[in-house]
Amino acid sequence: MNETVKARTMETNEKTLIRTLKGETLSVPPIWLMRQAGRYLPEYRETRKQAGNFLELCYTPELAIEVTLQPIRRYDLDASIMFCDILVIPDALGQDVAFREGEGPVLEPIQNVQGLSVLNPDGVLDHLAPVFETIKGLRRELPADKTLIGFAGSPWTVAIYMVEGRGGTDGGKARSWAYKEPDTFSQLMDVLVAATTEYLIMQVDSGAEVLQLFDSWSGVLSEDQFRKWSIDPTRRIVDGVRAVHPDVPIIGFPRGGGLMAAEFIRETGVNGISMDANVPLEWARDTLQPLATLQGNLDNQLLVAGGAEMDMTVRRIVDTLGKGPFIFNLGHGIVPNTPPEHVARVVELVRGQS
Ligand code: CP3
Q: Could you read off the pLDDT of 158-177 as tens digits, one per residue?
């Protein structure tokens, strides 16, 4: 075999998700779905009962592995995202974090510089050791063609939960702190950048092949604040991870970032960008796809609704974005009332079987 052929063969043996993230356009785009493991699956609800509370599920490798594999058994997805949550970072830092039934996450809020004293960055990796065990177990159990995705929340999004103490807010307390006292707010962000960087490096050491950073609340930031609290911390994390793992593909998800997405890609150096359902497809194709691999962006409520409108939208997304590097996904995570058969339908459509 000559060198070129050998190189090409090696390249085509690479997994689909990694190939697209390196810039390749595939004839059939890879597909995975945010929150592909979760309450919409009866088998998840069953395992969740066994675990007791949600954080126990995240910290029990055997159960976390089981729920990670559940969607892979049902659907022909290209990638598996390890089961965990973005709020294990504040938990590992020593903040009081709980998940209450029907209420979501509840944290003991940190609202000023004095509040930062509860955070202890030293024990983070020890506390998260079960997550690394989950990743190692998944690499053993996942079929060889599936890519294992590790993840973390971006500092701004994690900070919102830490400051507000719960979800479902407009991030007003965090935004106000960041405006009034940027220097002390930076101290919180610095702790998060450092903890998230070491956490992601260990995920890759343990076997994660691709990383995604969820900035689910970047859309509440004004232009200059977006640069300061979404782009800059993301860039520092990407640089920190790449210093140790130069080749690991990283996907950014600056949800609601709108027109800031192009600058986000250029300044952070991410390989891929996950787009919410609001991002116009043709604009994304023309403006963002030359800069990075695109991922997205079916509306998670259209996945609930299903029917002809869903079929048409899936086709339109694939037709518009599939001529360049592209990963099919949702605009935001699967919601609990999603009919599992709609997920099967989307996978079938993306694979072009009908
Ligand atoms: O399959 C996967 O995508 C992997 C697992 C995963 C979870 N959370 C499991 C989970 C991932 C990647 C996350 C990320 C996450 N967690 C984000 C970023 C993505 C996003 O959706 O914007 C955020 C903001 C969180 C914080 C969080 N965790 C909230 C607000 C909630 C409550 C909302 C809800 O759906 O109940 C959670 C809980 C959570 N994380 C559940 C799951 C499956 C449901 C909890 C349960 O089973 O009782």
A: 999 999 999 999 999 999 99
Q: Compute CA 313 distance to the chain's CA centroid, rounded to the nearest angstrom.
A: 23
**Dihedral sign, Cα of residue 36, residue 318, residue 231, residue 112:** negative
Please, which residues bridge with residue 327 across strands? 295
Q: Does domain 3-350 have CATH number 3.20.20.210?
A: yes
| pLDDT tens sequence across 145-156 | 999 999 999 999
Q: In the structure encoding, which two tokens stand for residue 184, read together?
A: 């002390």
For residues 71 and 329, the answer to whether their CB atoms sit within 8 Å is no
Mean pLDDT across 188-207: 98
Q: Is the CB of 89 under 6 A from ligand 1?
A: no
Q: Which of 40, 44, 48, 232 is catalytic?
A: 48
- Nearest in space to 284 (alpha carbons), one of 311, 299, 262: 262
Q: How far is CA 150 from CA 22, 78, 188, in A?
A: 17, 14, 23
C-alpha distance from residue 307 to each of 40, 50, 351 (Å) = 18, 34, 17
Please state the pTM of the whole predicted model. 0.95
Count of CB atoms situated within 10 Å of the CB of 108: 13
pLDDT at 1 over 90: no
pLDDT tens for 14-68 read 999 999 999 999 999 999 999 999 999 999 999 999 998 999 999 999 999 999 9
Parse the chain into domains and list their residue ranges: 3-350
Q: Could you give the residue ranges of the DSSP H alpha helices within 34-102?
A: 42-51, 54-59, 61-74, 88-93
Give 341-353 as a DSSP string. HHHHHHHHHHTT-
**Residue 175 annotated as catalytic:** no
* Contact 48 CB / ligand 1 (< 6 Å): yes
The H-assigned helical ranges of the chain are 3-13, 16-21, 42-51, 54-59, 61-74, 88-93, 124-127, 129-141, 155-164, 172-180, 182-206, 223-226, 232-244, 261-268, 281-283, 300-305, 307-321, 340-350
Cα–chain center distance at 220: 18
Residue 316 among the catalytic residues = no
pLDDT tens digits along 317-326? 999 999 999 9
